[in-house]
Design goal:
The chain is an alpha/beta fold and 248 residues long. The protein has 7 helices and 7 strands. Helices cover 42% and strands 17% of the residues.
């Protein structure tokens, strides 16, 4: 168990999937969690209630990270809530688009980069005044940043950008003791990877994984708590593959 007692964490896109599992794990390990959502208010409120019922501390906060000022709006809300100190930022919110190269529109491309790259970049920027020395920033990358899987080239490019940000942010923020890493899942049974719920999707997943089952969000969630804890105090600037041994 990671001891995150008295830590305050923000998890973006925490109303479902991997973000929800990350928020739950952080709370179980003692952190007070700000559960960000874009449109899933009911799911976010449900998670907050679950965490509180288990004796933890959580509250929901809304912002549209696709909007030009989305990261700035969220950061302003968070700064008011945390009263000067945020310990953990999990930049999980993301969208995907599965389409052949010739089928992607400019609007699709811009929205992917807006949510998956621009929003986390400016969220870190805007939260720097409250990210305390020794705090943690954790991005979410993907298997597809290093391996070609499916027809998601533009999405994969956003995750390649995330991996690059991790290194540059880690170098820039290291003097303050702020660690910056990313978690890179493979195929996980979420709405974003709904193809894994089909027979053909499961077969594809099994064919490229050493571990022969489809991951659940809970298989990924605990890694965020580990990276945010003192047990990972000498890890920064890295993208940690949590993918069941995919594409070995």
């Amino acid at each position: 168990m990671a001891d995150l007692t008295n830590k305050i964490a923000l998890v973006t896109g925490a109303s479902r999937g991997i973000g929800q599992a990350a928020a739950r794990s952080l709370a179980q390990n003692g952190a007070r969690v700000l559960v960000h959502y874009g449109r899933g208010r009911e799911e976010a409120d449900s998670l907050v209630s679950e965490i509180r019922a288990a004796g933890g501390h959580a509250e929901a906060v809304a912002a549209d990270l696709a909007a030009d000022d989305g990261a700035h709006v969220l950061a302003e809300k968070v700064r008011k809530i945390v009263d000067g100190k945020l310990d953990i930022l999990v930049a999980n919110a993301g969208i995907s688009k599965s389409v052949p190269i010739e089928g992607l529109t400019v609007e699709d491309f811009d929205r992917l980069f807006a949510v998956n790259v621009r929003a986390p970049y400016f969220l870190v920027q805007q939260l720097l005044p409250v990210l305390g020395d020794g705090s943690n920033v954790i991005f979410v990358s993907s298997l597809v940043a290093r391996s070609a899987v499916g027809t998601i080239a533009a999405y994969a490019a956003t995750k390649g950008a995330v991996d690059t940000l991790v290194k540059h942010f880690a170098a820039a923020l290291g003097p303050r003791g702020i660690r910056v890493n990313a978690v890179a899942p493979g195929v996980v049974d979420t709405e974003m990877s709904s193809f894994a719920r089909t027979d053909s999707g499961r077969q594809l997943t099994m064919s490229m994984q050493a571990l022969k089952r489809v991951a659940t969000p809970d298989d990924i969630g605990g890694v965020f708590a580990f990276l945010a804890s003192d047990a990972a105090r000498w890890i920064t600037g890295h993208t940690i593959a949590v993918d069941g041994g995919s594409k070995l």
